[in-house]
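Human:
If only I could read C-alpha coordinates as easily as an amino acid sequence. I am handing you a single protein, as its sequence and its fold in C-alpha coordinate form. I hope you can help me see how the letters and the C-alpha coordinates relate. Thank you; the sequence and its C-alpha coordinates follow:
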Amino acid sequence: MTPQAPTPAYRRLSVEERRSQLIDAALSLFAHRRPEDVSLDDVAEVAGVSRPLVYRYFPGGKQQLYEAAVRSAADELEQCFDEPRQGPRLLRLTRALDRYLTFVDGHDTGFSALLQGGSVVETRRTSAIVDGVRRAAAVHIYNHLDITEPGPRMRMTVRMWITAVEAASLIWLDEDKQPPLDELRDWLVEQFVALLTVTAGRDPQTAALIAALAEDG
Protein backbone atom coordinates (compact mmCIF):
# COMPACT_ATOMS: atom_id res chain seq x y z
CA MET A 1 0.00 0.00 0.00
CA THR A 2 1.53 3.30 -1.16
CA PRO A 3 1.87 5.74 1.71
CA GLN A 4 0.05 9.04 1.18
CA ALA A 5 2.00 12.26 1.10
CA PRO A 6 1.66 14.21 4.32
CA THR A 7 -0.84 17.08 4.29
CA PRO A 8 0.99 20.42 4.20
CA ALA A 9 0.94 22.13 7.56
CA TYR A 10 -1.33 25.15 7.86
CA ARG A 11 0.69 28.37 7.86
CA ARG A 12 -0.67 31.23 9.91
CA LEU A 13 -0.41 34.52 8.06
CA SER A 14 1.26 37.49 9.68
CA VAL A 15 -0.77 40.61 10.33
CA GLU A 16 0.60 42.34 7.23
CA GLU A 17 0.11 39.27 5.06
CA ARG A 18 -3.49 38.95 6.18
CA ARG A 19 -4.17 42.63 5.62
CA SER A 20 -2.67 42.38 2.15
CA GLN A 21 -4.80 39.33 1.41
CA LEU A 22 -7.98 41.15 2.40
CA ILE A 23 -7.03 44.30 0.50
CA ASP A 24 -6.28 42.24 -2.63
CA ALA A 25 -9.66 40.54 -2.28
CA ALA A 26 -11.38 43.91 -1.96
CA LEU A 27 -9.52 45.31 -4.97
CA SER A 28 -10.53 42.34 -7.09
CA LEU A 29 -14.16 43.16 -6.28
CA PHE A 30 -13.87 46.95 -6.55
CA ALA A 31 -12.21 46.47 -9.95
CA HIS A 32 -15.51 45.46 -11.49
CA ARG A 33 -18.18 46.64 -9.06
CA ARG A 34 -18.96 49.92 -7.35
CA PRO A 35 -17.74 49.97 -3.73
CA GLU A 36 -21.27 50.46 -2.45
CA ASP A 37 -22.24 47.20 -4.16
CA VAL A 38 -19.53 45.22 -2.38
CA SER A 39 -20.20 43.84 1.10
CA LEU A 40 -17.79 42.56 3.72
CA ASP A 41 -19.34 39.14 3.18
CA ASP A 42 -18.23 39.37 -0.46
CA VAL A 43 -14.69 40.24 0.60
CA ALA A 44 -14.62 37.41 3.15
CA GLU A 45 -15.83 34.93 0.54
CA VAL A 46 -13.20 35.93 -2.01
CA ALA A 47 -10.46 35.82 0.65
CA GLY A 48 -11.71 32.47 1.98
CA VAL A 49 -12.09 33.77 5.53
CA SER A 50 -14.95 34.59 7.90
CA ARG A 51 -16.64 37.99 8.18
CA PRO A 52 -15.50 38.41 11.84
CA LEU A 53 -11.90 37.98 10.66
CA VAL A 54 -12.33 40.84 8.20
CA TYR A 55 -13.61 43.00 11.06
CA ARG A 56 -10.66 41.97 13.20
CA TYR A 57 -8.26 43.54 10.71
CA PHE A 58 -10.56 46.37 9.63
CA PRO A 59 -12.67 47.28 12.68
CA GLY A 60 -13.92 50.35 10.81
CA GLY A 61 -15.76 48.04 8.43
CA LYS A 62 -16.07 48.56 4.69
CA GLN A 63 -15.14 52.24 4.85
CA GLN A 64 -11.76 51.47 6.39
CA LEU A 65 -11.19 48.60 3.97
CA TYR A 66 -12.14 50.81 1.01
CA GLU A 67 -9.67 53.48 2.08
CA ALA A 68 -6.94 50.86 2.45
CA ALA A 69 -7.78 49.52 -1.02
CA VAL A 70 -7.62 53.01 -2.52
CA ARG A 71 -4.24 53.57 -0.86
CA SER A 72 -2.97 50.26 -2.28
CA ALA A 73 -4.23 51.12 -5.76
CA ALA A 74 -2.75 54.61 -5.48
CA ASP A 75 0.65 53.19 -4.54
CA GLU A 76 0.50 50.96 -7.61
CA LEU A 77 -0.43 53.89 -9.84
CA GLU A 78 2.41 56.01 -8.47
CA GLN A 79 4.84 53.22 -9.31
CA CYS A 80 3.59 53.28 -12.92
CA PHE A 81 5.33 56.63 -13.43
CA ASP A 82 8.51 55.61 -11.60
CA GLU A 83 10.35 54.88 -14.84
CA PRO A 84 14.19 54.69 -14.86
CA ARG A 85 15.69 57.87 -16.29
CA GLN A 86 17.29 56.13 -19.25
CA GLY A 87 16.80 56.65 -22.96
CA PRO A 88 14.88 59.39 -24.81
CA ARG A 89 12.57 61.40 -22.59
CA LEU A 90 9.36 60.75 -24.51
CA LEU A 91 10.12 57.03 -24.60
CA ARG A 92 10.34 57.02 -20.79
CA LEU A 93 6.99 58.77 -20.62
CA THR A 94 5.50 56.32 -23.11
CA ARG A 95 6.57 53.34 -21.00
CA ALA A 96 5.15 54.92 -17.85
CA LEU A 97 1.86 55.72 -19.59
CA ASP A 98 1.69 52.17 -20.90
CA ARG A 99 1.82 50.82 -17.33
CA TYR A 100 -0.81 53.35 -16.22
CA LEU A 101 -3.23 52.33 -18.97
CA THR A 102 -2.55 48.66 -18.26
CA PHE A 103 -3.64 49.33 -14.68
CA VAL A 104 -6.82 51.04 -15.93
CA ASP A 105 -7.48 48.10 -18.23
CA GLY A 106 -7.06 45.61 -15.39
CA HIS A 107 -9.39 47.48 -13.05
CA ASP A 108 -12.00 48.04 -15.73
CA THR A 109 -15.20 49.78 -14.62
CA GLY A 110 -14.03 50.08 -11.01
CA PHE A 111 -11.36 52.59 -12.03
CA SER A 112 -13.80 55.47 -11.65
CA ALA A 113 -14.95 54.40 -8.19
CA LEU A 114 -11.43 53.64 -7.01
CA LEU A 115 -9.57 56.73 -8.14
CA GLN A 116 -11.90 59.23 -9.77
CA GLY A 117 -14.58 59.67 -7.13
CA GLY A 118 -18.29 59.26 -7.54
CA SER A 119 -18.68 56.64 -4.81
CA VAL A 120 -20.92 57.06 -1.79
CA VAL A 121 -18.10 55.71 0.35
CA GLU A 122 -15.63 58.30 -0.89
CA THR A 123 -14.17 60.45 1.89
CA ARG A 124 -11.90 63.45 2.25
CA ARG A 125 -9.06 61.01 2.97
CA THR A 126 -9.58 59.02 -0.23
CA SER A 127 -9.78 62.26 -2.22
CA ALA A 128 -6.48 63.36 -0.68
CA ILE A 129 -4.92 60.03 -1.66
CA VAL A 130 -6.00 60.52 -5.27
CA ASP A 131 -4.66 64.08 -5.31
CA GLY A 132 -1.39 62.67 -3.99
CA VAL A 133 -1.19 60.35 -7.00
CA ARG A 134 -1.61 63.31 -9.35
CA ARG A 135 1.10 65.29 -7.58
CA ALA A 136 3.47 62.32 -7.61
CA ALA A 137 2.77 61.73 -11.32
CA ALA A 138 3.63 65.36 -12.06
CA VAL A 139 6.95 65.07 -10.21
CA HIS A 140 7.84 61.92 -12.14
CA ILE A 141 6.98 63.63 -15.43
CA TYR A 142 9.27 66.57 -14.60
CA ASN A 143 12.02 64.07 -13.83
CA HIS A 144 11.49 62.25 -17.14
CA LEU A 145 11.69 65.58 -18.94
CA ASP A 146 14.84 66.54 -16.98
CA ILE A 147 13.08 69.64 -15.61
CA THR A 148 14.34 70.46 -12.12
CA GLU A 149 12.46 73.73 -11.51
CA PRO A 150 9.29 73.86 -13.61
CA GLY A 151 7.82 77.30 -14.05
CA PRO A 152 4.12 78.12 -13.70
CA ARG A 153 3.29 77.53 -17.38
CA MET A 154 5.14 74.23 -17.40
CA ARG A 155 3.37 73.14 -14.22
CA MET A 156 -0.01 74.09 -15.64
CA THR A 157 0.67 72.23 -18.90
CA VAL A 158 1.67 69.04 -17.09
CA ARG A 159 -1.32 69.20 -14.75
CA MET A 160 -3.66 69.80 -17.71
CA TRP A 161 -2.26 66.73 -19.43
CA ILE A 162 -2.63 64.54 -16.33
CA THR A 163 -6.27 65.61 -16.16
CA ALA A 164 -6.66 64.79 -19.86
CA VAL A 165 -5.15 61.33 -19.35
CA GLU A 166 -7.58 60.60 -16.53
CA ALA A 167 -10.55 61.78 -18.61
CA ALA A 168 -9.40 59.82 -21.66
CA SER A 169 -9.02 56.69 -19.52
CA LEU A 170 -12.62 56.94 -18.33
CA ILE A 171 -13.94 57.64 -21.82
CA TRP A 172 -11.90 54.70 -23.14
CA LEU A 173 -13.63 52.40 -20.66
CA ASP A 174 -17.03 53.79 -21.70
CA GLU A 175 -16.13 53.19 -25.35
CA ASP A 176 -15.46 49.46 -24.79
CA LYS A 177 -11.69 50.08 -24.70
CA GLN A 178 -11.46 51.52 -28.16
CA PRO A 179 -9.12 52.52 -29.71
CA PRO A 180 -6.63 49.75 -28.77
CA LEU A 181 -4.50 50.49 -25.72
CA ASP A 182 -1.25 51.02 -27.63
CA GLU A 183 -2.96 53.47 -30.00
CA LEU A 184 -4.48 55.38 -27.08
CA ARG A 185 -1.09 55.51 -25.36
CA ASP A 186 0.70 56.93 -28.41
CA TRP A 187 -2.15 59.38 -29.05
CA LEU A 188 -1.92 60.72 -25.51
CA VAL A 189 1.84 61.19 -25.80
CA GLU A 190 1.29 63.08 -29.05
CA GLN A 191 -1.29 65.27 -27.31
CA PHE A 192 1.26 66.03 -24.59
CA VAL A 193 3.78 67.15 -27.20
CA ALA A 194 1.07 69.29 -28.82
CA LEU A 195 0.29 70.94 -25.45
CA LEU A 196 3.99 71.61 -24.88
CA THR A 197 4.30 73.08 -28.37
CA VAL A 198 1.46 75.53 -27.74
CA THR A 199 2.92 76.51 -24.37
CA ALA A 200 6.36 76.95 -25.94
CA GLY A 201 5.03 79.98 -27.84
CA ARG A 202 4.55 81.75 -24.51
CA ASP A 203 7.20 80.19 -22.28
CA PRO A 204 10.97 80.07 -22.91
CA GLN A 205 11.43 77.09 -20.56
CA THR A 206 8.95 74.99 -22.53
CA ALA A 207 10.46 76.19 -25.82
CA ALA A 208 13.86 74.92 -24.66
CA LEU A 209 12.27 71.59 -23.73
CA ILE A 210 10.68 71.22 -27.19
CA ALA A 211 14.10 71.82 -28.75
CA ALA A 212 15.68 69.21 -26.45
CA LEU A 213 12.96 66.66 -27.30
CA ALA A 214 13.67 67.22 -31.00
CA GLU A 215 17.35 66.47 -30.37
CA ASP A 216 16.38 63.25 -28.57
CA GLY A 217 15.01 61.95 -31.87
